[in-house]
Specification:
The chain is mostly beta strands. It has one domain: Immunoglobulin-like (Sandwich). The protein has three helices and twelve strands, in the order βββββαββααβββββ. A four-stranded mixed beta sheet has the order 1-6-5-3. A four-stranded mixed beta sheet has the order 8-7-9-12. A hairpin with a 3-residue loop joins strand 10 and strand 11. The longest helix is centred in the middle third of the chain and has 8 residues. The N and C termini lie far apart (44 Å).
Length: 263
């Protein structure tokens, strides 16, 4: 017996106030990813984090230090039911360089137990912009009208904090959890946590300018190519060409390997 295609996950979500009872609308295309966290270079990001899951976790942006200068590896865990404030500052080195777009993409995740936390679902998109690109409420003031984040990820559900729960509820007759076929069946290839091409909400209108943030998560081997097909675009380098296929290589590391983004 195998689990199938449905697994319990822990996910980051944004709320309207410190009661953590009213959830903000979540873009459909993000799937299980957490909400966008956006900031300009030089900004301080302050996150009020309440752990409503059943295991210790935290929320740590990649390549951004604590506001007090401490390393992100020292981020304290937040135990279930606890509220903790995490405060980070965005340095120049994390922002766009001269020939990059106004904003570049990265990610945040829980790093209490990095493998298990991420495979349990705790990850989301981080957008870092040049000074002044975002206004006081995080809206862009350049020509970009839509933003999309896509995590091409392999979730190893054998390492999820909820693996025993998932196995017991979805494959109750299974007793040998170390069987190679069973373990392989729990490696789920997904985009934003959805499989079989079920991701919805990647929609925008003719004439809009969209920014895409693409990163890879999971997998112990291989190189995966993200293939965008059908929309004409202009590619400018030594020559200016019109194309309708864009290939983006995502190097899959042992845990996390986000890419810089294009738009």
């Amino acid at each position: 017996m195998f689990v199938g295609s449905i697994y319990r996950k822990a996910i980051y979500r944004e709320f309207t106030d410190d009661t953590f009872t009213r959830m903000k609308p979540h873009p459909e295309h993000l799937g299980i990813l957490g909400p966008f966290i956006r900031g300009n270079v030089g900004d301080i990001i302050k996150i009020y984090y309440k752990n409503l899951a059943s295991f210790p976790s935290n929320i740590v942006p990649r390549n951004i230090p604590f506001a007090d200068g401490a390393e992100i590896t020292s981020a304290l865990p937040t135990v279930p039911g606890e509220l903790r404030v995490y405060q980070y500052v965005i340095p120049d080195r994390s922002g766009p360089v001269s020939k990059e777009p106004n904003c570049v993409g990265s990610m945040y995740s829980s790093r209490v137990s990095p493998l298990n936390d991420t495979y349990s679902g705790l990850l989301g998109p981080l957008v870092i912009c040049r000074p002044g690109v975002l206004d006081s409420v995080g809206r862009r003031n350049d020509k970009v009208t839509s933003e999309f984040a896509t995590a091409f990820s392999v979730f190893d559900e054998n390492l999820s904090h909820y693996s025993r729960y998932n196995f017991a509820t979805r494959a109750p007759a299974r007793s040998n959890f170390s069987d190679p076929q069973f373990r392989q069946s729990n490696d789920m290839n997904s985009i934003n946590g959805l499989i079989y091409g079920n991701l919805r909400g990647l929609e925008f209108n003719v004439g809009e300018k969209a920014a895409w943030y693409v990163f890879g998560v999971g997998s112990q081997f291989d190189v995966h190519t993200v293939h965008f097909h059908g929309q004409l675009y202009v590619h400018r380098k030594s020559l200016t060409l019109r194309r309708d296929v864009l290939e983006v290589n995502i190097l899959q590391g042992f845990l996390l390997s986000p890419t810089r983004i294009f738009k």
